[in-house]
Amino acid sequence: MEDERSVVALMRAMELDDEVVQRVSRLWGKSAARNDGRTHLLLGHLLDTAAVAGVMWDRYVAPAFRRRLDEVSGGRGRLWFMWVCGIHDCGKACPAFQAMDAAEAAPVLAAGLPLGRMGVGRGTRWRHDVAGAVLLRPRLITEWGGEEAAGWVWPLVAGHHGSFPPGGALTPPRGAQGRGVAWEETQRGVVNVFTRSVGFEDLADVRPVESLRKAEQLALSGLIVMADWIASDSSRFPGLADAEQISFAGARRRAEAAWERLRLRGGWRNLPLPETPTAPLTGRLGVQPRASQRELVERAWSMPAPGLLVAEAPMGEGKTKAALAAAEVLAARFGLDGVFVAMPTQATSDPMYEQVLQWVRTFDPELEPQVALLHGRRRFNAWWRAIWDGKPRPDADGCGCGDDGDRRETAGLVDDDFGAIDEDADYGVASTPSPMDQVADLAADGPAHWFLGDKRGLLTAFAVGTVDHLLHAATRTKHVMLRFAGLAGKVVVVDEVHAADVYMRQFLVEALRWLGQAGVPVVLLSATLPPAQRQRFVDAYLSGVLGTADVHQPVPEPAGYPSVTVAYAVEGRAVAETSSKAVQPWRDSVPVRLGWLPDTEPGGARVATAVRDAVADGGVVLVVVNQVDRAQAIYRELRDGGFDGSLHLLHARLCAAHRAVRTAECLRLMGPRAGGDRPERMVVIATQLAEQSFDVDADVLITDLAPTDLLLQRIGRLHRHSGTRRQAAHQVPRVLVTGVAHGADGTPLFLPASKHIYGEWALLRAAALVSQAAGALAAEDGDGAGGAGWSIPADVPGLVARAYGDAEICPTEWDERGAWERWRAKEQSREEKAEQYLLCRRREWAFPTLEGLHYAGSRAASEEQLDAVVRDGDLSIEVVVVRRASGGYRAVDGTWIGVHGEVDDDEATDRLLGGLVRLPPRLTNAARTELRPLPGWADRPWLRYRPALVLDEQGATPLGADRVSYHNVLGLLVERVAR
């Protein structure tokens, strides 16, 4: 029971022997050398952590999880949560830990606790997290009446430093754990007095009445880590070296003050049910519900248990707003406290972040600072800077200023663009690790900057970010429990879910299993989802719900398109349903004319000619190609040929500032609110950045051949907005497919980059389906007239199903079977590669506890390498482009940055970071060897780990075997140096 008694008074009330009282009172938990010069006793830290857990229960933990802990503990969830969080460091009561600091060890020795032959500093051989499990496990088995309850609790203690060891690791070196009466009584005393301090009668009284499921255990473990990290902040919890000053009531006051100072909070906190079924759409989002949106929300209302919803609808149908509305319903019905929206790329995350901000404000304006943007370039999002970094708001709604006196900057979180669509035909990206683990908070009211530390982003109530964050929560990496805890109290929405390639899909499927077992509702969105993927996602989620790895619940064929599939389980019975009646799409299907533009030349001359022809009498053309070099070449052809019109180039090798400006300009001229700004003649040449979630409207699409679903995504940029005025020649949307040519034997020839990225089999099947609509690919240039074309969106699900179905659809001479066998062998190899990083081995999925979850760990040595774990590829490096100038350096925009690269303020830092650009992966090794941050960046956290690409006064520099330059229009240029 909480009171003001010190732990010393409590121990005496418990009638512990005076020697035991003295020994327990001398054990240290935080050394003065590492705790701002003040020793903090072990019991003080245990009680601080328990007190933080109590505040988390009241103000942070989702209602659904509180209910589960109440069920597990027999109605004492809050008390039990405090105990399990606080007991985490009991293993510090052992010689191995107590001997680690000579100054701290002296009082322990003086109290009569032998430290044996370990020697000061040698305790690192025996970790205190594992020591805690060794100390606690036999007592739990004895006092809880068996292994069942103890078996899932001890790994929570053993894993609080980020990894769960196997039971075989619980064998301490000789003398490390402590033997003899003195140590045994002291260790028992630590556990007993902590347990009584929190409010239980004794350890037997703590016994849970049932077990949490494994995914729930993982979420609980993450909350334990969160409580520990908060309570370990010496600036909020200064050390107490006198046990007479330590009490649980005092710890509670410290925890309350720290929570207020850090401004931590949860999200909705018992969100009420909407007043009417469609209120989340009409009242909250201000939309007149379309049939597909209404269908998704109605399904969220009707599901009897948390489950999976898969919404398939045409591009531009309003799926994301419907998903937010469904998330509100699911959260209110099932007790969730927030939402994570996972987007395929950084570029798509930014507009979604602004949309979620507006949505969250409708619940409570004070929730706005709880919305986090999770990607490595969030610093360039004006709204994020306004809210989280005290900058002026984009809409001038208040100054957005805070007290800068206590603010420190932090580097971006781990992530980058999602999917196997890298323009340079290489997979995998890397990010910059955060330079600090903790971030100071602002003195003025504002967001909780604690959440900006490493691995903490998902712990915010509302988050928008790249899907990498979801995938990372399904990897067997250190502190994965912290990431998963951030998902477990939320509704998870994944947009453009089809974008995951076969490698990344392994982690998505693994995440769905764990989320299903944790009772987390998930909403998947796609316009072009193959039926086999839909089935696999359903099976994965249900396997989690049912706790077995081999669930297969056939999904009925949807009645039409759009459609919604739901999957859940009731009383151990799996259910998978789809829309029972056809749902009317928002827009009627329109014919799209398809034609061929045979071209596999790298120069882009043929494409440039076709562009000129397409806009001869006006119009807007979008060109989407599969490689940056090809996009740059086409732009050059048009520019040097004197193109008369608005010409734009957009790709991933533009620096951050240029890419942001151009994206915004394209949206202004071609977006839904373009109106009179839409030019008479305009051409945008882009890479896969324009493939999805790029809300522009083009009259004509010229695109390199891509797999069918991605080709349809590109077609989704055609005639996208109602009311757009078009010339007579462009009343019917038209597509020219290029990047392919007629081979001598009749088999299509593909661009090498396209073949490397997508594989020959998918391209052959796409070519076959295009041929059926546009006529056969001829040896001569096509005239663009095309054939019967496709009806969009009506034909979309059928085309995707055929593209990824089992039936052969290519002419015999194309050797489709051979291409499929080569593709399948490569895909199987990639699947096997992904399995070594998955959170759980298939044969261990049904294991009831977290014991041994990190049986082999991940090969990811650092946060910087984590992206490569979920992306299957070589690391690439993001660099800051600077130009050497007389007496110093200049940023890309010309800003002077000093003799050694010094920057004086945030504004100059922003300008400098506008030069961020990602190098092609083939330059990674050379960049690691040759590039370093400038000396003047050492005291700027956003810069100190960023390599500088220093260009000479001619704007170029050698890098490895290449010559690298940056052109303000073309972007990064890489030329192989002749030898």
Automatic annotation (TrEMBL):
The uppermost taxa in this organism's lineage are: Bacteria, Bacillati, Actinomycetota, Actinomycetes, Kitasatosporales
Q: Which Pfam families match?
A: Cas3-like_C_2, Cas3_C, Cas3_HD
The source organism is Streptomyces olivaceus
Question: What protein name is recorded for this chain?
Answer: CRISPR-associated helicase Cas3
Gene3D superfamilies given in the database record: 1.10.3210.30, P-loop containing nucleotide triphosphate hydrolases (3.40.50.300)
Family matches, as CDD domains: Cas3''_I (cd09641), DEXHc_cas3 (cd17930)
PROSITE patterns, A to Z: HD_CAS3 (PS51643)
Residues of the HD Cas3-type domain: 35-230
Q: What keywords tag this UniProt record?
A: Antiviral defense, ATP-binding, Helicase, Hydrolase, Metal-binding, Nuclease, Nucleotide-binding
By sequence similarity, the record places it as follows: In the N-terminal section; belongs to the CRISPR-associated nuclease Cas3-HD family. In the central section; belongs to the CRISPR-associated helicase Cas3 family.
Q: Which gene encodes it?
A: cas3
